[in-house]
Amino acid sequence: MDQIEAMKAFLAVVDASGFAGAARQIGVSTATVTRQVAALEQHLGARLLIRTTRSLRLTDAGQRYLADARGILQALSDADALARGAHIEPVGTLRVTAPVVFGRLHLLPVVLSFLKAHARVSVQTHFVDHVTHLIDEGLDVALRIGRLPDSSLRAVPLGAVRPVIVASPAYLRRHGVPRSPHDIERHQVIGLDRAGHPFQPWVLRSEPRVGRGASAEAPQNADVSLRAVAMPPVRLMVNHNEVVRDAAEAGAGLARLQSYQVAQAVADGRLRIVMAEWEPPASPVHLVHAEARAATAKVSAFLGHATPRLRQVLQDLDGQLA
Predict the structure, then answer these.
(1) How far apart are CA 222 and CA 43, in angstroms?
(2) Is the whole-model pTM more than 0.90?
(3) Which domains are delineated in the chain?
(4) Distance separating alpha carbons of residues 49 and 153, to the nearest angstrom
(5) Tell me, what's the pLDDT at 171?
(6) CA-wise closest residue to 203 among 232, 230, 176, 239
(7) In 139, 147, 218, 227, which residue has its Cα 20 to 30 A from 70's Cα atom?
(8) How confident is the model at residue 296, as a pLDDT?
(9) Closest CA to 226 of 181, 285, 284, 275
(10) Bridge-based pairing state of the strands 56-58 and 49-51
(11) Across residues 280-291, what is the average pLDDT?
(12) Residue-level pLDDT at 214
């Protein structure tokens, strides 16, 4: 048994959620993938996957082995890249993750310009609305919004985005403009309820502040007093930020979104920001990477390319909302 190839087959099965998909992904037959995983399980003396006709899931041993296998294969890839000179010239596949809307609107154009500048690099994007584990999932760079936990990862600050309340001009003409948190209870509200993130009452300042925009205050200022506000019954609950924005543009009620998600709609007049003086502090935005990965030329080149462009994007977005 070639253990490295068997590990690759095992990871492909997990990533593709099946043996047939894994076979297509790595370009071999389904029977070959099945044999490789079976041989790996026999070699380890442990079952990694529980297979039924309808589902595939990892055992506890499989969960542990998955993280270790990803690390081993990434270390092997880095070693190969070093031997080929990839720590001098950008080459290979760069894996980048970001929140879905920010990734689609703002990171993708940066990725496309990076590809034009570096012909020997390919990029895989992984746009999801949950926090990913860079090492375990084999990712090189993550764009993160919000306070960062203490970790061994290195972070490059880019700027900040604001949590804003918006509504359509037509809605505000019909129902009036809310001026304080007490007014929200008398309005219609569009709720966001995603898997793992159920709808919660909005948290706003206890007292209004003077000045607007993400630059008016240090992001995530710990000295600001915040409180949850009384909410009306939510008649429209959706599961994606873009649907919240679309519903707000259609006049369904007040919506709470990040500033980058509504900047164009505000600039075009489709939405209007209300109660800006009650906003919580802005959320910081960073590019995050593992310290060891910074040594590879592809990661260093991407950070050098993306950092000034994304900083400008965030400055421009703040200007659109001023």
Answers:
(1) 52
(2) no
(3) 3-84 (1.10.10.10), 92-160+283-321 (3.40.190.10), 163-205+226-278 (3.40.190.10)
(4) 31
(5) 97
(6) 230
(7) 147
(8) 79
(9) 181
(10) antiparallel
(11) 90
(12) 42
